Amino acid sequence: MRVLSAAALLLGSFAWQAAGGAPSYTADPASSRLEFAGIQAGAEFKGVFHKFAAAVDFAPDALADAHIDVEIDLGSVDSKDDDRDSTIRGADIFDVVHFPKAHYVTRSFSKTQTGYAAVGALTLHGVTKDVPIEFKFTPGAGGANLTGSATLKRLDFGVGQGDWKSTDQVGDAVKVAFSLNLKPKP
Amino acid sequence: MPNERPTRYGAPAQFLHWLIAALIVNQFVLAWMADDLPQGARKLALLATHKSFGMTILMLAILRLAWRFTHPAPALPAGMSRLERRLARVTHVGFYVLLFVQPITGWMMSSAKNYSVSWFGLFTWPNLIGPNKTAFEYLRTTHDSLSDVLFAIAVLHILAALKHHFWHRDDVLVRMLPFTKSRGR
Q1: Does any domain span residue A39?
Q2: How far is A103 from chain B (nearest CA, A)?
Q3: Is the Cβ pair B41, A81 closer than 8 Å?
Q4: Cβ under 8 Å to B: A residues 96-155
Q5: Average pLDDT for A41-55
Q6: pTM
Q7: pLDDT below 70 — which residues of chain B?
Q8: pLDDT at position A17, please?
Q9: Do B45 and A168 touch (CB under 8 A)?
Q10: Strands A77-78 and A101-111
Q11: Which domain holds residue B156?
Q12: Is position A176 within any domain?
């Protein structure tokens, strides 16, 4: 009986694959982009993470089966200034020695007027909290593009200790934007 | 004779002179304080204020130069030697040049380091150049060296004004002072 149900499950999953449920992709590192923008002393500054890995299961007609899983190497932060980057990696901000990675895993998806929305859990600086994202999914030749954005509050994750806790200098809200060039998972 | 040169600076010229002078003193104090701090939030806060005041000085410098071109300055006292006149000219032209060059090199420095300049958090000035480490180092050296030049000519300017006032007893200092009367010399 157990074997049977396992077989049924297996079959079921094949059927679901065959029906085009939610194909699996990985983001091509070279052509995908993950950037953030914060406010410092009233002026916006932008940076990118050079190293991150994203796995995506997505099909517009199978939102229940959709998943986005992103792992970000926080040490790869680049805001085009070495002083600022080393400060961001330092103990008072990302503390990459203790928390080298951030991880984002979605839980649920919904359709919006312009695209899709998802809610997922972001683990950053040892704190896990929900962060909603919005994105557009554009299938293309040999893959798809997933472009979207999110806004999170850095202090929710304890990002900014000591003098950096104050929002006078560095704003609490940080915008995140991503453009993932998705290739079918081999 | 039309366009006769005045004997005193007008109130707007005096106002701009003393306001900009006070802001420049403030700029030196903020820069020195920031220099003494390690990389961190406090240093960035001081530098952000330095930048906001620097942009203020740039805007006031535009006003001041426009005013200077449309309102002739009082003549230098008779009896100054050619060297003294030349020195006075060089000092004053140097001030005007630095009133523009210092804010602009500072602004470019910020742009090269990818720190956009905000004006007291009210709005953000556009970046003048893209992120560029080499340009930043070059601009920092320029901005620092010119601040030494500015300091030196400010010292010369103040000593000269005091020399005129206490030694020659002419009205060179007084004619730039509000709420005073010229000595009529």
Answers
A1: yes
A2: 27
A3: no
A4: none
A5: 96
A6: 0.86
A7: 1-4, 182-185
A8: 46
A9: yes
A10: unpaired
A11: 11-176
A12: yes
